[in-house]
Amino acid sequence: MPAYPADYADLNRRLWNEKTAHHVASAFYNVPAFLAGASSLNPIELALLGEVAGQRVLHLQCHFGQDSLSLSRLGARVTGVDLSDVAVDQARQLNAQLGLDAEFICADVYDLPGQLPPRSFDVVFTTYGVLGWLPDLSRWAAVVAQFLRHGGRLVLVEFHPVVWMFDNDFTRFDYSYFNRETITEQETGTYADRSAPIETTSVTWNHSLSEVLSALLGQGLEIRHFDEYDYSPYDCLPGLEDMGERHYQFPHLRGKLPMVYSVVAHKK
């Protein structure tokens, strides 16, 4: 694992605090439609989750809570966790506005042990652009395993590590597929609003599929499902085109590039 700055979490918290207000106001997240009843969940994760009514769901890195609240609307008992205090405050406001009963905690994923009872969740759920903010996947997998009850499951849907190898124009490889460097970048705008007047520092890591799966297996979790997809359900990268049914691809790489993968892992 590469060395990383001790203040990486503070830098990333500031980044997400800056981005949240722009995300809430963006067409990308479409909060008015969400408040009117639209779900923020995609077919990939809905198919993997199945029936969640009555289940206890721990949603890691939940941002400002739309997916957590969509799960709550389906009858799940949801606890959402995020590093950004601004995002968590917004999630709590939406929860109150919608009259739902989700709980939201502001915490680093690594700091969760001790804040919630172990083995208390049926599902740990985390999706899209989450693992790259964490330097150590063995520690992450240990948190997942700690909070799952016996027979519980992790549902992970994430952008494929091949995507993060490219430059911003998706014309060449700038980064390793393997986790061999800490990637510190200066960002302007945000994927939900590229014209947003913000400049932030991000600290991330690219985690290969073998690193992800090995971390879960190392905690004794049983991989029950793994799949890869040649599209993104979000228009969140420069140059993507909508191929229909919210399948976004790069025209020059159509059908050639893995963009998303999914894992379901069970605790024995």
Description:
It is a single chain. With 268 residues, the chain is of the alpha/beta class. The protein has a single domain (8-267), classed as Rossmann fold (3-Layer(aba) Sandwich). The chain has helices at residues 8-24, 31-35, 43-49, 66-73, 85-98, 137-147, 209-218; strands spanning 56-60, 77-82, 103-106, 121-127, 148-159, 183-188, 199-204, 221-229, 241-242, 248-249, 260-267. The strands form three sheets. Strands 3-2-1-4-5-11-8 form a seven-stranded mixed β-sheet, sandwiched between helices. The chain has a two-stranded antiparallel ribbon with strand order 6-7. The chain has a two-stranded antiparallel sheet with strand order 9-10. The longest helix is centred in the N-terminal third of the chain and has 17 residues, at 8-24. The mean pLDDT is 97.
Short note summarizing the structure:
The chain has helices at residues 8-24, 31-35, 43-49, 66-73, 85-98, 137-147, 209-218; strands at residues 56-60, 77-82, 103-106, 121-127, 148-159, 183-188, 199-204, 221-229, 241-242, 248-249, 260-267. The chain has 268 residues and is of the alpha/beta class.
